[in-house]
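We modelled the chain as a single entity of 412 amino acids. Its sequence is:
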Amino acid sequence: MPAVAYLNKHGVPLAQPSPMFSSRFPVLCLHRDHLQRALYGACLDPASGPPVEFLPGVSVERYEADPNKGVRVYLSNNTCLESDVLVAADGIHSTIRRQFVEHVTSKHCGYVYFRATLNVEEHSVGLAPFSSAFESWGDGQRFGYVPLQAPDVFWFASIPAAEQTGPDGMATSIIDEATKQHLLRLFEGWSGQAQDGAQIVNLQRLILSSPASSILRTPIRKVPDVEKFPWQGNRGRVILLGDSAHAVAPNLAQGAGLAIEDALVLATNLSRVVRGEASLEAAARYYELARKPRAKTVQSMADLVATVGHIRGPLALARNYFMLASHKLAPTVQSLIFERAVSMSLGGDSNNLYWSPPVPKGTVDAEALTRALERSCLLGRVLGATFSELPSHVRKFRAASEGEGVGIVSVE
């Protein structure tokens, strides 16, 4: 995705980054099916390690955990699995999460998404997939466009709406022709364009060219207060991952990315347990400590995008006027703010533009550990950036002791 921009409904840029965006932020837009097939293939590849067993058509009903022995998982086919650790990646309505944090339930965000993937060549819409992604804002509605691997493109329409389920109580449903006609009326006259303004896209044609049977309607929900409830329990035997811990609104396209990051951080910490460098409980706590601030940031920014994008009436006119004026009068300043926001949403900090995976080296990842402990332990808060200069055995002590221990500290 070499470029991205926010536009008004006529395709006029309201905010966009500098032309260097693609070199600074190597963002890859993937169809989820392609990603899942790649991951599935890796799980079955003998070169990748021990094979992974898949049980299709089976759901988890409950679990029993003994902090000193392990976990038993009871399945819908009347079988029981036993393991050392249960990693619950069972989505926003997680059965496992409800069992050990009963008070946490998903929350409707106040709007619905209509979304589809379209092969622009197959449907002969007269559009070529181009490299720019954009989101257009109108009077309470939003429309997004993201090119995937050519000739596929992805589009979504976001509309404020009360919570409703589809047929048979399903949250996500395929729309009918009447709903498609309603979408066409809502987005009549809307257009989008590439960053250089050379290519105009009629958004109505994207909807019109997508068969109703390919358009999904999803009420958008999230897991609120992700930093206020535990992501692990039973002394590290049960661990939440992905949407089960921190489902966010899809306004930044970070949901699947956050889950992949979770998996990398968790795997890195579990490898420390295998090597005898940390207890299972310590590894689970560090995973939780490292991931909660990231998830909270993405959730807050995703909510902010929706709040600003769904503004209606005179406030929508004021929003467009202010953003357009800043784009015209101070484009450099706006680009810096834009790219800083992108960096934050991608996990960047004062040292990096975007999140980078932990590197397993047989020891604690010093940089990631330093960042987490700077926020969590007294010594880290006092020393700040200087914490990284402490001897490695001191940093390892802070991790292995789970934040508590006996020792001698000299303060000058």
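As a brief sanity check on the tokenised model: The chain has a mean pLDDT of 85. Residues 374 and 380 are 4 Å apart (CA to CA).
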